[in-house]
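User: what does the whole thing look like in 3D?
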Amino acid sequence: MRLTSSAADPLWYKDAIIYELHVRSFFDGNGDGIGDFQGLLQHLDYIQDLGVTCLWLLPFFASPLRDDGYDVADFRRIHPDYGTLEDFQTFLAAAHDRGMQVVIELTLNHTSDRHAWFQRARGAPPGSAERDYYVWSDTDQKFKGARVIFVDTEPSNWSWDAEAGAYYWHRFFSHQPDLNYDNPRVLEEILGVLDFWLSMGVDGLRLDAVPYLVEREGTSCENLPETHAVIRSIRRHIDAHYANRMLLAEANQVPADVRAYFGDGDECHMAYHFPLMPRLFMAIHLEDSTPIMEVLAQTPSIPDVCQWALFLRNHDELTLEMVTDEERDYMYLAYTADPEARLNLGIRRRLAPLLGNDRRRIELMTALLFSLPGTPIIYYGDELGMGDNIQLGDRHGVRTPMQWSDDRSGGFSTAPPEQLYSPVITDPVYGYQSVNVASQQDDPASLLRWMKNMVGLRNLFRVFGRGSIELLRPKNGKVIAHVRRFEEDVILCVANLSRLAQPVELDLSVFAGLTPIEMLGYTAFPTIANSPYFLTLGPYGFYWFELQQREP
Amino acid sequence: MASTGSSSSSANRERDQAASDSDLVVGIATYNHARTAGRLVETIRAALTQIAPSSRARILVADGGSKDGTREWIREAASGDGDLVELSYAVQPGDVLDVPYHGLPGRARALRVLLREAQARKARACLVLDAFATAVEPDWIARLSDPIRDQDVDFIVPSYSRHPFEGALVHGAVYPMFRALYGARLRSPMGSEFACSPRLIEAVLSDPIWESESGQAGIDLWMAATAVSGGFRIAQVPFGPKVTDERNELDLSTTIVQVFGFLFSDMERRVQVWHRIRGSRLVTRFGEAPQDVPGQPEVDVERLAESFRLGCRELQGVWTEVLPPLATLQWRRLAAARLEEFRVEDVLWARTVYDFAMGHRLRVIARDHLLRSLAPLYLAWLASFVLELRHATPEAAEERIERLCLAFEAEKPYLISMWRWPERFRPVKIRR
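Assistant: Here's the predicted 3D structure for the full assembly of 984 residues, as structure tokens:
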């Protein structure tokens, strides 16, 4: 019998709005300067009040924390900084009580070099099953077709292990050896980990770095058929034992390659739409809809039960791996006045600083995120317009403590400030004294209140998560317009990417006789006729319309 | 579920099981209804004999542990007839202390027991009647159950003939708002009597509402909202005046807390439904409305107006938490008006109810406190309604209620716009 889930609808992830957070960064419940599950539990009401329906937690497992938890030392233990397994279970039940689903990380591509599997492997005889949990070689010249991802820190995908007397394979940091999926025991181990969390009630798993599971000579070692076979095995296991769970693929690839991670609806339920995100930023900077139109045109269709995960910002750098060299140069010029903001092939900034802290741009980008086909993800703090600190190294600058109030340390912790896992943002523009939850909750015109309303509005209409999209092509390229349809709902979305007011003429003749109702204020606009429909949009303005058949 | 009494004997049980498919079950929930329940059971028995002598009909009685001999009276009325099925439901101490507006402690639990039994018996129709009804006409049972059994109706409610001044909370607020929200002109959306189909029973029994606290008071409204918003076929049957032995002595503000508290909470659950509904549609009516309308009750309008004026003095601080400034000024102006000028415009009343729905949703103050403060405003509306209609014919009164409903429908965009973008309308106090 399959274990049921907290969600009644098997397609719950299509209607979700996901809130991504790091337990460490959210709230410190025990006063030691580090966020924990007790703290998260205390602020679940805030998340519920925001209206999001799903939480995605960054890794919270036992780890030396050399890659913020993506270097897992024990998949079944909670890092003591964050609490206990019981704390996690209490949090999970509380989230479910509030009608929210919970997605956690499964870093199945690699472990920490402190993981017992690796410690055992390095001392095991070559060729033994224990040794073969990881990928070893006598030479660092194998798999030369595989690119190095962390170009700023890693010269090679191979590192020498003196104890083993061999090189081991790693696609990310050298302290993160890749697991060897050619060894069937590895998959068995990972399925055991998966069972541990899913049987506890976790609703979804984010499959970290999923394109890199298997290596083959003469290939890029990405997106290989053998990798997809592993994913299908995982999916079969889940479908056989659990109901209404979700797998989310982290595959930073071109759309055609990402499409493969959905399979025929028999691999992952969701995958990030990586190429879309940088093009949203390009479009608003260029004041031109072309980058968005192009990437949407290149986006392949996916099985009915699958869904894109959309985001503007997350815990990593704004990745520019999936753009052309010229586009990358443009993005660096447009968005990184400070070279310190660049990291690997990306930009380590939060949403508000990227957009010049321009409220209208933030609103427009959020409206685009919410109106395009997929499930949107909000990164913690972006609902407030939190800033970053690019001096903190790696991606730590976008993982600073949540700013709850203008109290010491932004209300994040009662510990002395020097004891915090990370300094809070204190600059005059984005510092916790001016950007915090408490003040924005009191301010009816705050970004937080605006976000809450937008989240609530999007939750009202399943068309955004489930509907089809038709791109309109207005002559004014500074304006992007599209129609979403699902069941009886027909929604017209129009957005002005320019900093100046723009007119637009739309061919809506197919909707002649329908009345556009502006969705935020429920205001009726003139009924559509067979002639062009004229609209004027303010700077960075947008409209969402329900197209309704009105009584005469 | 306990099943005791006349049908609990093994012989009867075997017979019941052998004929488990009942065409019709008529359910009554009782709790100290000795004065009426026996008579009601007699009437039902007589009716069942007349309308469906060959059908397999059962009378289900769910009792909450009556201490006044209710069950004995019922058994006597049933004369040992095997058609009676005795059930029980739990009345908890809190139910008795906090009696719902419909007067039956633990009503939701009772209803659940009845519906489950109907489902277990695969009844083609389940009819639920009030135990305190003292004058049930035998043909009512057929008129309520036939459309379910023969015409694929899923939910049908009686619409009793009442003077407009009676049950004005329903005419003046619950019905117009329910109709505007869900688009169905169902005159008694919170009536405790109805008949329903197996399809609807299956849908409602799978809902978690039965376990919730709020469901205890608002279960009837919830049943109607579920039927109307869930794609079920609904209908109503006009009846003559309802004669009851109802002893509901709840004060108005508590009734408002219960009724509107549930209606407003239910709005949050069904938000995706009512945001899409525009206008309203007629609900199929089986039978003609009787001509006999009860006489006009005495209403002390001056007392109503004075209660409003007192509320206006005492509750301004609460009202300004939810009402926009213009509405506050209009209510203030009304408080200063002489009785002959005492009129509440439909738009003001509709928007005020909607403003309270928003205040409830946003929890601007404690919900109970907020809802109680609606009582004086309702009394003002009632005073205005009575003043306007005291010399009106029944037809004119009906037209007046229809105009009020249309105002609620016309103002629905106001509610939707506030719901979607609340802070534009909500006064906010900045904490210092």
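In plain terms: The CA atoms of residues 389 and 397 of chain B lie 6 Å apart. Residues 1-20 of chain B have pLDDT under 50 and may be disordered.
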